[in-house]
Amino acid sequence: MQDARAPKPMLSAEQAILQMLSEVAPLTQCVSMPLTDALDKVLAQPVLSNINVPGYDNAAMDGYALRASDVKPGQPLTVAGLALAGHAYTEPVPAGSCVRITTGAVMPLGLDTVVMQEQVKLTQTDLQQQILCQLVPVSGEHVRRAGEDIASGAEVFAAGHKLRPADIGLLASIGIANVKVLRQLEVAIFSSGDELVPPGQSLPEGHIYDSNRYVIAAMLKRLGVQVIDLGLLPDDPQAIEQAFLQGMAKADVLITSAGVSVGEADYTRQILYKLGQINFWQVAIKPGKPFAFGKLNNCWFFGLPGNPVAAVVTLDQLVQPVLRKLSGENVVGEVKLLSAECEVPLKKQPGRMDYQRGWYWQGESGLKVKTLGAQSSGMLSSIANANCYIVLPRDSGSLPAGEIVSILPFSNLLR
Ligand SMILES: Nc1nc2c(c(=O)[nH]1)N[C@H]1C(S)=C(S)[C@@H](COP(=O)(O)OP(=O)(O)OC[C@H]3O[C@@H](n4cnc5c(N)ncnc54)[C@H](O)[C@@H]3O)O[C@H]1N2
Ligand code: MOO
């Protein structure tokens, strides 16, 4: 097999993403599930509405339903009855009369307008109630028309739509109790390194806690995929190979962190060459250069760098779009870069696109941003305390304070 380590120009982030997207195809297996379980799932087929929403003309306000043409200045209308939400009003309404109505109640036949109760003067005699409108209403005012929200037969969502909370409400509003969704993508993860100890245990000299597996699993949960945690492994080629084989057998995708750089104990890459293929390695971004993409039989492989911030940035920026495509999600209209004035100088060397970690806020004359201390890719606090990336182009060098820079507010994976 050809060795992808042979020197070649590093891909830009855009090239890497386009190449990965061009190689992967979405899942097709689907499952039916109750609406209450469907949040963040991806629709396997379009959803059409079988009903009008609202299903009938109804009052948008508490007040009086009437014919707008009956309202003449100084002439009262007799209140002929009461229309309540959930109860049909079947009596004919004589000319010159109105009906007391509550929000959501069906409009009585022949009436076209609702006048809010605050805009009428109510008079009561022993025999009847009358109203005097304080304003001449516009015909159709405060009436919600049948089908004005959703018309019967309309497509409410396309296949590939990922269901958000409001979408669940909308599906309920058209009477849908079960939806056909794509099965969740299964993503196996593991950490490896002799220096790593799981949180909760005491920390021997020269060791650090395994944080990557935790942040990667948390981000993947936000993305709505199934996480298969293969644990924490030593720098032992056999153990790592076993984990690769397990991941290949169980999951659609295997994501590792560490071991993709050039160190002696970087077994991940060696085993990947043995069991599958590396499609590319190294992307011109900082942090995150030693990122690998490949395939192990039917399982896609993403090798994230070990440095914790590099692992987070590559998962967020490079892997996220690919997992979304694999999950069957239609990805359109993504958030783009904003401009902000940077309050602090920024250090950078030309060569790689930089994702510095920043904090942005609304200033008096536009967005402002600053970095929060050191930008080492080993410092998780630099990203945990941030709310955006400051994205510096590949060729850019250091910048003085006061420059306008591009920022990318964090997606929901990091918020
Ligand atoms: N001579 C070179 N050295 C390095 C290069 C290079 O191009 N030439 N690249 C550097 C860059 S950039 C990065 S990023 C790292 C990535 O290296 P690896 O992906 O091979 O990862 P490791 O060397 O195993 O670990 C790097 C760093 O991350 C810590 N780590 C690893 N796993 C975890 C975990 N699960 N939780 C928390 N921290 C973890 C590990 O202890 C190391 O400190 O390589 C540079 N070197
Ligand atoms: O990806 Mo490395 O973290 O640039 O230092």
Automatic annotation (TrEMBL):
* Domain annotation MoaB/Mog: ranges: 188-325
Q: What is this protein called?
A: Molybdopterin molybdenumtransferase
What reaction is this protein's catalytic activity?
adenylyl-molybdopterin + molybdate = Mo-molybdopterin + AMP + H(+)
- Which superkingdom heads the taxonomic lineage of this protein's source? Bacteria
Give the family this protein belongs to, as stated in its UniProt record.
Answer: Belongs to the MoeA family.
Which pathway does it serve?
Cofactor biosynthesis; molybdopterin biosynthesis
Cofactor(s) for this UniProt protein:
Mg(2+)
User: Mind listing the UniProt keywords for this protein, alphabetically?
Assistant: Magnesium, Metal-binding, Molybdenum, Molybdenum cofactor biosynthesis, Transferase
According to its UniProt record, what is one Pfam family this protein matches?
Answer: MoeA_N
| Signal sequence range | none
Q: Which organism is it from?
A: Rheinheimera maricola
Q: Which InterPro entries match?
A: MoaB/Mog-like_dom_sf, MoaB/Mog_dom, MoCF_biosynth_CS, MoeA-like, MoeA_C_domain_IV, MoeA_C_domain_IV_sf, MoeA_linker/N, MoeA_linker/N_sf
- Top EC group: transferase
Q: What does this protein do?
A: Catalyzes the insertion of molybdate into adenylated molybdopterin with the concomitant release of AMP.
What SUPFAM superfamilies does the record tag this protein with? MoeA C-terminal domain-like (SSF63867), MoeA N-terminal region -like (SSF63882), Molybdenum cofactor biosynthesis proteins (SSF53218)
Instruction: Give the EC number.
Output: 2.10.1.1
